[in-house]
Design goal:
Strand content: 15-25%
Radius of gyration: 17 Å
Bound molecules: inosinic acid
Order of helices and strands: EHEHEEHEEEHH
CATH architecture: Alpha-Beta Complex
CATH topology: Maf protein
Largest sheet: 7 strands, mixed
Number of helices: 5
Number of strands: 7
Shape: globular
Length: about 190
């Protein structure tokens, strides 16, 4: 069985392939030579994951998964949330996004935040299903670490004293929002 993963990101592709049974081959948009971007115009992570999955399903009529992730900061009423990639404007820039987030948190001591990933799955018959993964933690004032991407240098997951950017990819994948959503999906597929 083949599943299309609606991504161009090779690291995400590797992560999914390592989590699903070997009988399932995960192929990316690059494998399909699909170069156009699917615009994420939804108001929620689920909307965006579904938009991507439906676009690919309509084109190829094959099982597909698509993901969308956001960082929800409690003191900012859930911002940047669905706008995490473009929080400080386009083009997406991780440094600017972190600067704006830290600026907006200057006057608050509430540092609680969580990453959430939604995975949308459409099976060969067109049936849609959503899976969620979440990791709670807090936002720190200074950047620490140079691994990972996005908001990793300022996010410390609960139960750790390291930021995501100070962890190896194995360590981060052991607890991350994306890995948890993928695990929920792979538990479903493995049944
Ligand atoms: P995407 O849906 O995976 O493309 O994620 C949207 C945005 O959320 C990214 O551009 C990053 O800003 C942020 N993000 C997603 N996952 C992570 C992560 O694991 N660490 C830090 N930031 C992330």
């Amino acid at each position: 069985m083949e599943i299309i993963f609606a991504t161009h990101n090779k690291n995400k592709l590797k992560e999914v392939q390592s989590l699903v049974p070997e009988s399932i081959k995960v192929i990316s948009l690059d494998d399909l030579n699909m170069t156009n971007e699917i615009s994420e115009t939804g108001h929620t992570l689920a909307d965006n994951a579904l938009i991507k999955a439906r676009t690919i399903f309509e084109l190829y009529k094959k099982p597909v998964i698509a993901d969308d992730t956001g960082l929800d900061v409690e003191a900012l009423n859930g911002a940047p949330g669905v706008r995490s990639a473009r929080y400080a404007g386009e083009p997406s820039n991780a440094e600017n996004n972190m600067n704006l987030l830290l600026h907006n948190l200057q006057t608050t001591t509430n540092r609680a935040a969580h990453f959430k990933t939604i995975i949308a799955y459409i099976d060969s018959e067109g049936k849609e299903q959503l899976f969620e993964g979440r990791v709670d933690g807090s936002i720190i004032d200074e950047r620490r670490g140079d691994k990972g991407f996005g908001y990793d240098p300022i996010f410390v997951p609960e139960g750790s004293d390291k930021t995501f950017a100070e962890m190896s990819s194995e360590e981060k994948n052991g607890i991350s929002h994306r890995a948890r959503a993928l695990k929920a999906f792979s538990d479903f597929i493995n049944k």
